[in-house]
Amino acid sequence: MTLQRRTFLAGMAAAAASTTLPSLARAQGYPEQLVKWVVPYPAGGGTDVIARTLADAIRPALGQSLVIDNRPGASTNIGADLVAKSKPDGYTIMSADNAVLAFNEFLFGKLPFNPEKDFTYIGAIGRFPLALVVNPEFPAKDFKAFLAYAKANPGKLNYASPGNGSPHHLAMEMFKNRTGTFITHIPYRGAAPAMADVMGGQVNCMFLDLASGLQIMQAGKVRVLAIGSAQRSKLLPDIPTLAEVGVPNTEVFAFQGVLGPAGMPPAVVSRLNAELNKAFSNPAVQKRFTDFGMEALPGTPEQFAALSRGEANRWGPIIKAQGIRLD
């Protein structure tokens, strides 16, 4: 090797070290300032409450403040775009759910970000199943009778959801696709008014998440016909799964995790992932998850990314087949 060649390679190695070592040092000292946790929903909702509960649990270990920054709007796209365009230093992270990770790339013709390329996957938070519920006075007393009624009366039933493109909306669209039924969608602005009209009988049915509706389910204010989880819920042990009542391949759930901008230092990702997983054993977090009917999903960033892409691959064909668009 010529002297010129050796000098060139040595210079390249030095340059690489000059950029890598400071980056590693910053990662090892992380965090040195407050961390902004973006929630793409208004304050007070389920996603916001979960984020604040986890932030409180993680804050002592990090030794820095975790500040919740609510950025609602455009079906989570406003908050997601903000994070995608942030500096990838670990000081801006976000709560992300089905919308960001699995739905919006199919619901919108064009997004300002790519959910697969523009984010760093830090770790999953948890998931909670959706249950099919009807008004208590509805004539069908069980799932079999409900399905028979829906098939015998196409277009006469209606269902509520917290809004177009929500997991609740798409869960019913998957159900309709799997069962060959025609039930009219009535979108609301949030879960509370949707639940109120199902309880009041203005709307026949809906898919309802346990986080929002567990109390009214247990109180009998709605009748639960089936649950969209792989196994029966410990909170509703007498309720059969959709697979048990004859609708296979219709597992429907909402899930959440933590993202950052693409290109975050691996050591920072590892630190945040470790603290997130530790938080699941915190009593306050466990109580909140129990209250919400939420199953914690500890694991690696790679497992969270695989879950997200798997859900996108599962929901994309349903959204296209049902012709659902939000733009």
Automatic annotation (TrEMBL):
InterPro entries attached to this UniProt entry: BUG, Bug_dom1, TAT_signal
Keywords from the named record: Receptor, Signal
Gene3D superfamilies hit by this protein: Bordetella uptake gene, domain 1, Periplasmic binding protein-like II
Organism superkingdom: Bacteria
Leader sequence segment: 1-27
PROSITE patterns: TAT (PS51318)
PANTHER family named among the record's database cross-references: BLR1237 PROTEIN (PTHR42928:SF5), TRICARBOXYLATE-BINDING PROTEIN (PTHR42928)
Family designation: Belongs to the UPF0065 (bug) family.
Name the record gives this protein: Tripartite-type tricarboxylate transporter receptor subunit TctC
